[in-house]
User: What shape does this take?
Amino acid sequence: MKAVRFHEYGDPGVLLYEDVERPVPGAGEVRIRVAATSFNPVDDGIRGGYLQGPFPVALPHTPGIDVSGTVDALGDGVTNVAVGDPVIGFLPMTADGAAAEYVVAPAEILAPAPTSIPLPDAAALPMVGLTAWQALFDDAGLTAGQRVLINGAGGAVGGYAVQLAKHAGAHVIATASPRSSERVAAAGADEVIGLVVAISALSTVVPVNRIVLPVLASGSPPSGRSVNGAPVCVPPPIHCPTT
Ligand SMILES: NC(=O)c1ccc[n+]([C@@H]2O[C@H](COP(=O)([O-])OP(=O)(O)OC[C@H]3O[C@@H](n4cnc5c(N)ncnc54)[C@H](OP(=O)(O)O)[C@@H]3O)[C@@H](O)[C@H]2O)c1
Assistant: This one.
């Protein structure tokens, strides 16, 4: 089969399109005929060699942690999916990924593919969707009736976070620049505010340390910078002035 691999860490130039053996699923695994994968910031870090500590991959390595595709073969003991099932999954981060015609995955990590969108498009869901879920529910413990500020809601993670928070019954306040505000509103945000407004909104939306608040409200803090034409401040508390 064909696969994209890198034999050494480096910039995108290390990626090679080459012939490799078609993988065989072991016990508890399935082989998926790949419809699509997607690339996220972590893929860049792994390929560049910056994340060898947390994600030590064996070289040569096939990237692509997200997958959508069709179950092609079953390993021993697999009962939760059948050959021909359309599935999506967030693959183990150090195993060979889905930038290939086929990929092997643990059966237990697979979910049925959504039916309302084309199967290749569904590869954009797993990692960003799980990131949004983890932030909202595992980390923040969001529940119905709460107000939540989703910063950067126009992005991939933010877009899912808006939808998930709204579905959970929260009042969703989202920041977005003009290029994204319409899409964020369509995703279900109750309020969409610009990035500059968000600085003052922080004082009423999220608990903010009393020392940090004046820095945010000033609009031109020492650590502020211009992003997409808007002055934006995300000062880490340890760098905020104490007087
Ligand atoms: N993608 C993943 O799988 C993943 C996994 C774990 C963690 N993360 C982290 O999650 C964050 C978002 O990732 P992403 O993939 O969703 O990125 P993305 O698709 O590039 O979206 C980022 C969004 O942030 C907004 N933005 C940029 N600068 C901003 C600022 N200073 N203040 C407020 N909003 C700002 C932009 O909104 P506008 O469009 O409105 O300009 C942009 O759409 C990143 O920190 C990333 O490292 C991502």
